[in-house]
Amino acid sequence: MRRTIFAGLIGLVFGTGIAISGMANPAKVLNFFDLAGDWDPSLAFVMGSALLVAAVGYFFVLKRDRPILETRFHLPTNRKLDASLLAGSALFGIGWGIAGFCPGGAIPALGLGESAAWIFVAAMLVGIAAAKTARDALLPRVAKTV
Questions:
Q1: Cβ contacts of 130-134, under 8 Å, gap ≥ 24
Q2: What is the pLDDT of residue 9?
Q3: Contact residues for 112 (Cβ-Cβ < 8 A; gap 6+)
Q4: Alpha helix (H) ranges present in the chain?
Q5: Model confidence at 104, in pLDDT bands (50, 70, 90)?
Q6: Are 142 and 135 a contacting pair, CB within 8 Å?
Q7: CA atoms of 72 and 125, how far apart (whole Å)
Q8: pLDDT tens-place string over residues 9-57
Q9: Is 144's pLDDT higher than 80?
Q10: For the chain, what are the domain ranges?
Q11: Closest CA to 125 of 99, 103, 96
């Protein structure tokens, strides 16, 4: 129960930051990507600030023996760049550039009543299910280890 409460509070802070920063506004995001047109560099500062906060957080948190609400840290161990990672990254970037939404911006936008966000999230969920089904069918060995 305590984990759920903290997860909800952290999600609320994250979603509020996304909404305040403008990352839930697809027009602002698309203007950030439009280097040759009406470029809006403000999201670069948002992303840079997020990286700085995360780096400081990791620096202090990883000095602890364990997290507050877990028995151990769950950090990624795979350091390989494989086709799945590169394809997923490319699809994420292409989708973000076309729609102006990423999952981190679209979910808070649901609360703002954005109909485009509802369409994006529905399409995202269908895409996740399709990708999982395709991965399980085409790569059953990999799907069981991931």
A1: none
A2: 94
A3: 19, 24
A4: 2-21, 26-33, 42-61, 83-99, 103-111, 115-138, 140-145
A5: confident
A6: yes
A7: 30
A8: 998 998 888 888 888 888 888 998 888 988 899 989 988 999 999 999 9
A9: no
A10: 2-145
A11: 103
**How many whole angstroms separate alpha carbon 13 and alpha carbon 1?**
19
Length of the chain in terms of residues written: 146
Q: What is the pLDDT of residues 50-79, one digit of tens each?
A: 999 999 998 999 999 998 888 999 888 888
| C-alpha separations of 113 from 25, 110, 116, 117, 118 in Å | 11, 5, 9, 8, 8
C-beta separation of 73 from 62 below 8 A = yes
3-class secondary structure, 41: coil
Q: What's the CA dihedral at 86, 95, 123, 112 to 10 degrees?
A: 130
- CB count within 10 Å of CB 50 equals 16
Residue 107 CB coordination number (10 Å)? 19
